[in-house]
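Pipeline run #58 for the internal structure catalog. This entry was flagged by the ingest filter as a single-chain record with no existing model, so it goes straight to prediction. Upstream metadata was stripped on purpose; only the residue string is passed forward. Reviewer on rotation: M.T. Logging verbosity set to normal.
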Amino acid sequence: MKVLVIGGSGFIGTRLIRQLLADGHEVTNLDIAPSQEHPQITVIGDVRQFTDVKSAAVGVDAIINLSAQHRDDVKPLSLYEEVNVGGARTVIKAAEANAVNRIVFTSTVAVYGLGKVNPNENSPVEPFNEYGRTKLAAEKLLRAWADGDAQRSLSMVRPSVVFGEANRGNVYNLARQIASGRFVFVGKGRNRKSMAYVGNIAVFLAGRLSAPTGTDITNFADKPDLTTRELVDLVRDSLQGRAKSQLSIPLWLGTIAGYGFDLLAKVTRRNLPISSIRIKKFAAETTVDTGKLQASGFVPAYTLTEALRATVKAEFVDRDGLADPPGGSEGSE
C-alpha cells in the first residue's frame, strides 16, 4: 500500500514509518521539519498548505495524519486552531482531490476532559484546553468526510500520553527531574495514569490501514494503569542508583506554587517547566477504558513496566540523559 504520513519526522512518526516500511508499505513523509531517520522519503511541507498536502498525496492509498500542536505552552494560541483544525480541513481537501478513501487520524484522550475515570469511546467529551478542543473539532470534520461516501474508511485513535526512547515528553521530563534531584512530589500519588509506549502504538496505527469502511474510534493505552506513586517509584528504581532525594508537598501548596510560576512566566515572558496546568495534570486521574482495544485482538509487544524500564535505561543509564537540552516533541498529551 502507498501511504502518506503527515508529521512523520516527530517521535511517534519516526517509529511508525519504521513499522510501515517493515510491513512492506511504500511510504512518503510530509513534515515541516526534516526527518533524521527517514530523509530519503521525506518531503518538506506544511499541513496547513493545501498545495503541499495535495501534491504529496498524489497516487497514495491512505493518509495517516499525525501532525498537531499539542504542548501546554504553544503561543500564539491560534496555532492550535490553525494546525489541528485547519490541518484536518486541508487533509480532507487533499484526500478528495486525489480520490483517497482511507484516513488514519491520531486524536487524543484530552477530548474527554481532565480528571475523568476510564472514559470509553462513547463517553461524553469535555475538553479542558485548546489542544483537546481543537482535536475534537478535527474529529468532527473527519467524521463528516467519512459520512460523505460509503467507500471511505476513517480510523481515529485516541492515545493516552505516549512515551518511549528518544522522546522528550512527560515521562522523560519526569525521569530527568528525579535523576537531577529537582523533582518535587505533589499530592499523595494515588491518582492513576494511562500511558502508551511508542513501540506498541506504532504497530497498532500501522494495523489501522486495514480498518473496514466507515468511522471507527479507539482509545489506546497500555494496561494496567499505574498510580503516580507507582510510576515515580518504578522510574526511581530503573535509574539504578542515580535518583536523588525526593521532596513531597501537599497538593494545595503545589497548586499555589503553580499559579506563582504562571505569574512569573507572564512577567518574564519565558516558558517555565512548572505551571498550574502541569500541576493539575500531574495530580489528576487520567485513565481511559481500553476494552475496545483489547476486544480487537491487539496484543502489545511490550508490557507497560518493560517499556518504562527500557526507556529509562536507554536515556539515563546507557547514556547521560541529563546532558540533553530540554525540548518538546510530537506525541505527548
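catalog note: The two ends are 30 Å apart (CA to CA).
catalog note: Residues 170-193+225-286+302-323 form a domain with the UDP-galactose 4-epimerase; domain 1 fold (CATH 3.90.25).
status: ready for reviewer M.T.
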